[in-house]
Write a structure and sequence with these properties.
alpha/beta; 6-stranded parallel sheet; 20 helices; binds cobalamin; binds iron/sulfur cluster
Length: 622
Amino acid sequence: MELPRRARGDEILPVGEMTSLRMRLRKMAAQHDLVSVIACAFDHRTRMLPFLYADTRMAPAGVRSIGAAMVDAGFAKTRVVLQQWNRNFRPSRMQLDGRMPDLFMVSTMGLHLGQAMEMVRDAHTIDAAQRPLIIAGGPQARYQPDDLFSGNPANPTSADVVVTGEEYVLLSLLEVLLALRGKGESMRAAFFRARDSGALDGIPGLVYGRGGDARRGGMSEEMVDTGIQRLLGNLDELPDTVLGYGLLEAPSRKATLESKPVEASRMRWLTPISSIILTYGCKFACPYCPIPGYNQRQYRSKSGARIAEEMWQVYKTYGLRHYFGCDDNFFNDETHTMGIVHTLATAEYEGVPLRKKVRWYTEVTVHDTIKMKANLPEVRKSGCRALWLGVEDMTASLVKKGQSVNSTIEAFTTLRDAGICPMPMMMHHDSQPLYSRGSNYGLLNQVRLLRQSGAPTLQVLMITPSAGSKLYESTFSSGQVFRTVGGRPVEAYMYDGNHVIASLSPRPWTKQLNLLIAYMYFYNPVWLVVALWHIHKRKNLGYRPALLQVFGMLGVLHTIRRTMGWGFRLAFRKIERLTAPPAMPLPMRALDGGPAAHDNTVSKTPPLELHQVRIAEPAVAR
Ligand code: B12
Ligand code: SF4
């Protein structure tokens, strides 16, 4: 189900609203000595190509942003724990400032849900008198908050409240709770009072349990959805990113927390790449993608000046030089993009040009890269060295968003000539053969073309149902999604695009094998030698393609080890299929008792074919 949109004109918060909320909270913070822990769920079984390195060496922006919002609001006693670095962390053993935190927050993507729920369960083992308020949020919670609830009486633990939105929603929740909280009262007790008095119902972007025995760690009877959040339009109103870094727990094998966060001097080794919010939103509407729906068709941005300032502050404080933009499509709006690029190209701090100190990277589309052709030298000048492009299928047989074989080659060669590495992101699907004679349809044919056009890396994922996308339900109802293979259930971590878990192919194991063959075809000793041979010929790219070949070959071995067993299972064992998306654990209602905005059993979009993609004009939120 694609998320519904708020009423036209009501999608965006009034200008200045976020800033005044931050101010109000700062005033309240002095009376509340809050201690919070924010954990980022991560399942280590998902570690493989093409995400090796970026998955653990780039501290995620989501938990850092939430941490920054807490500190900015006056709650400095906050720690961010990444399961990427602290895989044995257990909420039941956490202590900060010598006591059990008041708030335990967990952030999760869909594929890390298993770990997130394990942490929620563990937090519920904390003695009820001390138990923190458990708040969940993050990329999966935005689309399917019900995943953070349990409908199993044998294992009833759930998050107390799920935030389906961003910083503003969390801070609004805190404002209501702190206003109600009695002296010495726990945040959890204050939450249940607020819930029962209806005080949470004016905050769109929450889902909480009602009825039943949730207060004592049992099951609720139903989930209440306060609706779709209002989005922050001017991202300059966000709290300062640099604050989030100072909260990170150092890597360790312990279940407990250290008394202090990681030292600033270690940051550039632990997380050499910094993910940074530049823009949100995309004008396309690919049916397998939840992003346009989530952004309510809005395009949101920080100003160039704010971005430059953030990069400089993070560089100065922690020495980080590489920035990965969390953009959905950075080239979405040429005027806006060039405003940012121009500022980054000309910004100077303490007499040093920013572009000499930092390098940045992000995601764009083929269609918009071609439109930006004349601007690419300026983009490079501003410090950009690589751009990830959603090529999906070059022949546009899977999805049409303005790409074709010729346009893809043109975009890649232009980027390469401008000295920017073009990084392709491809999607393999049932109707694409491994190789096609006399056409460019086959997977290997396209991989070869991309390499010839200068791609130094490769990303090929199998198309997999994505929560919040238009195609989500029909992928299940058409019987494509596997429930079990040889009796082994398909778990959340397998929805990673690297495991074939949805296919109508009579031999789905061939799809699993095709992914590996594509990687082996791209990363191998022959192409390493070729890359070394061309070191001086490749304009501006230098040694990078050779280095990436070495890294890629090691990654291929790791990926084979991780997915080969699944491939064998697909080949020899019986596949059972789902006929509908997994049911919600509990019924979900809107505040008025009607259908809830996040109820994914109510289809709000008619079934779609993959080809029905339209290019909409961007709506720009100022
Ligand atoms: C950068 C990125 C990556 C990087 C991550 C590196 C890193 N360690 O940070 C890399 C390249 C490794 C990556 C890989 C994958 N990614 Co990715 N990625 C992104 C991207 C572009 C930006 C993420 C980001 O930092 N956003 C900015 C932060 C601030 O947003 P946020 O995390 O959502 O947090 C906000 C809210 O959610 C909320 N929030 C977050 N946590 C919490 C917690 C609490 C308690 C509360 C109250 C609120 C809250 O507040 C935050 C601030 O506004 C997003 C798309 C996007 N624009 O967000 C996709 C995205 C996160 N990726 C996605 C996916 C699916 C993947 C892959 C599975 C590949 C694939 N099949 O597409 C792999 C998984 C790899 C792995 N093993 O984990 C999906 C996740 C969908 C889902 N339902 O979970 C997203 C949303 C894209 C999409 N299709 O919609 N990804
Ligand atoms: S181009 Fe398509 S897949 Fe990429 S962000 Fe936009 S809608 Fe999603």
